[in-house]
Design brief:
70% helix, two-stranded antiparallel ribbon, transport, mainly alpha, globular, transmembrane, YidC/Oxa/ALB_C
Length: 321
């Protein structure tokens, strides 16, 4: 066993345990153990468990992103300080000061990549598990030879084998496989594109939209769907179902985050403040400092004070007279 297989072994074991567990549940509820629908529902359950377990990482990512946003003025100051300096000493000093700024803020520039770094080995593990099952090979754990054979022979609605790929569908001229693969691919691309679009348009501050990273994200907005199209040509339908459900989960999760925990200063944050203000107004509650009752800016209230009468400059004796 090579080092890569050794590292993937525990990941594949957990994936098989969850997949087989949901297959047992669906079968116990009356599902056909050899049906493609039973296996698709098992894959859906696998996605829900894995992505739900990753919620703490997602929350950590949000907190780290907020902290990274707060220190952007300091990062820009450091970059401006060493602008035009190409010597090694200056580059090392800039890198050191930048990392110190991130450390002081309690974050790091790679924190936002953490969920993706965790998802990638899980996805690779799933691909290996389903590939072995398609080849009627027993897995490393609970996915024994009988279950692998059931998965390999399973079909969706009796006409769409889960082990087939879009490429195989075109090669064999299978219209059901081609149509299913195309529909899955279109939904995958649409959900991925819409998720990223919502983040970029509603959950970014004006300062973030002026950064080079934002411009890179705009490029990725159109590159990732192209990557999905290429991948969908090669991946089996069972794997595509996992990818599709994961994309839908991400979309729903991002909509909740944008609605409940938007980035301060973003369009979503302003919209949330307006909603909270209207809600307080309907409930008859007093407006808070940052949530005026009418949803608009808090008006400046002119305070009236009693005018003080001018004192006479004449001596007291003359005033009494």
């Amino acid at each position: 066993m090579d080092i890569f297989a050794l590292l993937m072994w525990p990941i594949k074991w957990v994936i098989e345990a969850i997949l087989v567990g949901f297959h047992w549940v669906v079968t116990a509820l009356g599902g056909d153990p050899g049906s493609g629908l039973t296996w698709v529902l098992s894959i859906v359950g696998l996605v829900l468990v894995i992505r739900s377990a990753m919620i703490p990482l997602t929350v950590r990512q949000i907190v780290s992103s907020r902290k990274s946003l707060e220190i952007q003025p300091e990062i820009q100051r450091i970059q401006k300080k060493y602008k035009g300096k190409k010597d090694q000493f200056s580059r090392e000093a800039m890198q050191r000061e930048t990392m110190e700024a991130y450390k002081k803020a309690g974050t790091n520039p790679f924190a936002s990549c953490l969920p993706l770094l965790v998802q990638m080995p899980i996805f690779l593990g799933l691909v290996q598990v389903l590939t072995d099952a398609n080849n009627q090979k027993a897995g490393v754990g609970l996915l024994n030879l009988d279950l692998a054979t059931l998965f390999s022979n399973s079909t969706l609605f009796g006409v769409v084998p889960l082990h087939m790929t879009m490429q195989g569908g075109f090669a064999e001229g299978s219209i059901p496989v081609i149509v299913t693969a195309i529909l899955l691919t279109l939904i995958m691309c649409a959900t991925q594109f819409y998720t990223q679009l919502q983040i970029m348009t509603k959950n970014q501050t004006p300062a973030m939209k002026e950064s080079p990273m934002y411009k890179q994200q705009r490029i990725l907005l159109y590159i990732i769907p192209v990557f999905l199209l290429v991948s969908a040509w090669l991946f089996p339908l069972g794997t595509m179902f996992y990818w599709l459900v994961s994309n839908v989960y991400t979309l729903v999760q991002q909509l909740i985050i944008i609605n409940k925990l938007p980035t301060p200063g973003s369009e979503a944050a302003l919209a949330r403040e307006a909603r909270m203000a209207r809600k307080r107004q309907r409930m008859g509650l007093p407006a808070t400092d940052d949530e005026p009752a009418d949803g608009a800016a808090t008006p400046q209230i002119e305070t009236k004070t009693q005018r003080q009468q001018p004192r006479s400059k004449k001596p007291k004796s003359e005033r009494e007279g």
